[in-house]
Structure formats: structure tokens, C-alpha cells
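Next up, a chain.

===
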Amino acid sequence: QVQLVESGGGLVQAGGSLRLSCAASGRTFSSLSMGWFRQAPGKEREFVAAVSWSGDNTYYADSVKGRFTVSRDNAKNTVYLRMNSLKPEDTAVYYCAACQQYYTGSYYPNEYDYWGQGTQVTVSS
């Protein structure tokens, strides 16, 4: 079992920045690829970013490429999502997720095995 706890969400003005954190416990963190997803009201959960076991490989949705950065610290069992130049359309609940089966992570939520409870990000215009 893996427990994931997100933090760092909040209310920010358009153009601002936030850093989300996701702390993991319960299993060797360095053997899990990690992903960030988000879900806005009335919409499906969508892929945001993923990072491989080692942190060497990162992947982004086109909508956040160049603005968001995913990283991990295996010594702290934590994955981060740095979000810059935030837009109102980035408003959503953000979830981190852990994937056991793929080194690089996945774009598909059903390929992740564990999920955090989510943290709200609201960007005002």
C-alpha cells in the first residue's frame, strides 16, 4: 500500500505561481513513477505531468508545457509540481498518483495504482 498526501494548493491570481507537493509513504518511493492529474467541475480527470522513477524523464500535457515543472526528491519521498504563469483554466482539484508498472509513468489515470485526496487550485482572473 502507498499513501499519498498532497499540499500546496490555494487561491492565486492569474500569472501567479504555486508549488504542489505530494508526500508518499508505505512503499519504496523510488520504485514508483508519479503523475499529476487535475479535474475541473463537470470535466473528466486529465493528465498534467509525470516523472519517472529516477526523475530523469518528465512528461507534460500540451496545455501546461513550458509553465509547469514536475520533479521528485526520492530522499524525501516527495514529488512536486511547480506551476508558473497560472491561468483561470488551470483551476481544478489536483491529484498526485503513483504507478507501479511503468518506469516512466503514464498519461492514463487507470494505469495508476494509488491516488492522493487532491488539493484545490483556484486561479482568479
